[in-house]
Amino acid sequence: MSGAAERGHAARYPDGLPVGGEWVRTERTETVRFPYDGSPVCQAPVGDAQLARRAVEAASALRPRVAALSSRVRRRVLCGVAAALEEHAGELEDLLVLETGKPRADCRTEVLRAIATWEATADEVSRTHGETVPLDLLPSGDGMTGFWTRRPIGVVVGIAGFNYPMMLASHKIAPALAAGCPVIVKPAPATPLATLWLVHLVRERLAAAGAPEGAVQLVTGDAEVGRTLTTHPDVAAVSFTGSAAVGHRIARDAAPRKVVLELGSNAALVVAADADLDAAADAVVRGGFYASGQACISVQRVIAVAEIAAELERRIAARLPGVTVGDPREEGTRVAALIDGAATERVLAWIDAAREAGARLVHGGALAPEGGEGAGSVGRCVEPTLLADVPDVPGGLHVWDEEVFGPLVALRTVPDLDAAYALVNASRYGLHAAVFTRDLGAAFRAIDTLDVGGVVINEVPGYRCDIAPYGGVKDSGIGREGPRFAIEELTVTRMAVIRP
């Protein structure tokens, strides 16, 4: 790996990009930088549209062979990858800290969740089957036998975001292999390293099982590489995790290919009058600032019923000085630098715009003095920020209407739960929402009423079990991840009808 020694990490995989059955050296490389201080991590290979086409052609040629892999071989590969990730968990954690800049605790969680995803996907291999159909419901079916099976959809392209690169890639690669599909993954340009190592481990396990290494490939590069992959006629399905704007464009460009889109959100946490306010305040702080707020289901909008809003605000504010800001390599850090300087400046600008519109700054709102030094706009940490009384103004406010993807929580007060649920649903997004209440009726009303992909009662909206169906509605996407559900997305039913 070129430049691996620059920061002393020990990623072990060949130079170049894994395309076809080999690792292809690229003409270009780009420096991956540690977001906290801007220092170089290593040089990463950069692909191009030509290499992307080559990867699709290789995957297409392998499609029949990958589809024919036995369930025991697929399961063996998936279990082997889980074991390899567990073996290298500490090193992968270190590498994720360096390339993402996420606090160590969040990177550790990412590795553990990736391992669990591969293990759970291995379990699903034996459950991917069809069933019989009673054709004799109509007279024309008398004496006939009918059944359906699930077949691989074909070549899959998986595109992952920068915030949880290895885990997101795992949720695309593992189900594709379980379904019998060759897969090409494209990591975010800023965070390719852990995913490259993951793909290397997968290809080693494929080879050991007698399966083609080219069943899993990786191509880095710019938007043109992405367009080449998602619009190639030999691609059958695209699974994308990222922003709504990019996901919508992919859906248009990829048609008529199948798309699974896990897009952005501005997750809401509703606090009822009967809620445990200490638990709710803890959830806002825990759920609003993990991964430095760079998570699509982190707490962004807090909607509090009027009679408890002031006390909830007080309890949240009292906890914020205890959120440690600084170097993500340190065990106790909870908020670190955002992925790059542009993200930092955007978040600060959105905070300023909200304050100018009348929002009240309770805490934060600026760069933390503990941020990195010597790297210009890169590596600066935004303080954990709480805005209260965020107004509803003509044209809206980004801190309420859009996905901040930073350490910011915005608070609004409503008269009752009905108004709270209506405010949750007023968003164009709908991924996860949370409700804190002691009333079982209010909880079930939320489950029935909230127009989101997941409703979480008395926990953070960022709670996700990796075996559960995960995805959104409205502008938050279409389709579902989670091993069982992703496999369903990446297979097609084939009906068999037999007249003896």
The major β-sheet equals: 7 strands, mixed
User: What is the number of strand segments?
Assistant: 22
Based on Cα principal axes, name the global outline: globular
The tally of structural domains comes to: 2
Percent of residues in helices comes to 25-40%
Fourth-level CATH superfamily of the largest domain:
Aldehyde Dehydrogenase, Chain A, domain 1
Give start-end ranges of low-pLDDT stretches: 1-8, 370-379
List keywords for this structure.
about 500 residues; alpha/beta; Aldehyde Dehydrogenase, Chain A, domain 1; Aldehyde Dehydrogenase, Chain A, domain 2; seven-stranded mixed β-sheet; six-stranded mixed β-sheet; 15 helices; about 20% strand; globular; disordered N terminus
List the helices and strands and how they pair.
Elements: E1 17-19, E2 22-24, E3 28-33, E4 40-46, H1 49-67, H2 71-87, H3 89-100, H4 104-124, E5 131-133, E6 145-152, E7 155-159, H5 165-179, E8 183-186, H6 193-208, E9 216-218, H7 223-231, E10 235-241, H8 244-254, E11 258-262, E12 268-271, H9 277-289, E13 301-305, H10 306-319, H11 341-356, E14 360-363, E15 385-388, H12 398-401, E16 408-414, H13 417-425, E17 429-430, E18 432-436, H14 440-449, E19 454-457, E20 473-474, E21 477-478, H15 483-489, E22 491-498
Helix pairs in contact: 1-7, 2-4, 2-6, 3-4, 4-5, 5-15, 9-10
